[in-house]
Specification:
Length: 188
């Protein structure tokens, strides 16, 4: 049994979609895009993934680096990186980008998704969770970027869509927010 390092360090639990994806995906080289202080990276690292964790916030990366050092987790590397650059430079078997796209420059999101796809090995997986803004469910939060209905599914045409939904959820403050979620597998 693994120790819950997330609670030990005051991190939120790993995103529920990351936890679900790990029921399908064997440990591989993984990228946690927009890792913040490392809730998904630490979880993946404990499962045996070789994790690269990236975020633009140096403070969050420093916090994650201190956890990595304290726990001697040599399978996690954390770097300050602006995801808007869309130039990852390495290939991965699993790229997770949960609740990150909505904070990016809207003009760069297509390039970021394309870069994720290019940097995924054949048979590898992409996981994206992103807020939506639709007529039925207008987004109550002024994120720089939100998805339109069907937009994320369309971006992964030609990939096996293991999971796809556009579900409405209720935030802790009672606001209704719609998210698009995809777990897609690149053709071998």
């Amino acid at each position: 049994m693994t120790i819950d390092l997330n609670s030990r360090y005051g991190l939120n639990p790993a995103h529920s979609e990351v936890v679900e994806a790990c029921k399908v995906i064997e440990p591989t080289d993984a990228l946690d895009m927009g890792c913040s202080n490392g809730r998904n990276a630490v979880y993946l690292g404990q499962l045996g993934f070789n994790v690269t964790a990236i975020d633009t916030n140096p403070g969050a990366i420093d916090m994650l680096k201190s956890i990595i050092l304290e726990e001697k987790m040599s399978n996690i590397k954390a770097h300050v990186y602006d995801i808007n650059n869309a130039s990852l430079g390495e290939d991965y078997g699993f790229i997770a980008c949960t609740v990150t796209l909505m904070f990016l420059d809207p003009a760069r999101v297509d390039a970021v998704i394309s870069d994720m796809q290019d940097r995924t090995i054949a048979g590898g997986y992409n996981l994206i969770v992103c807020a939506m803004n639709t007529e039925e469910t207008p987004c109550p939060v002024p994120f720089p970027f939100t998805l339109k209905a069907g937009q994320l599914s369309e971006a992964y045409r030609g990939w096996e869509q293991v999971k796809y939904n556009e579900d409405v959820g209720t935030m802790h403050n009672g606001a209704k927010l719609q998210f698009a979620t995809i777990l897609a597998r690149k053709p071998s």
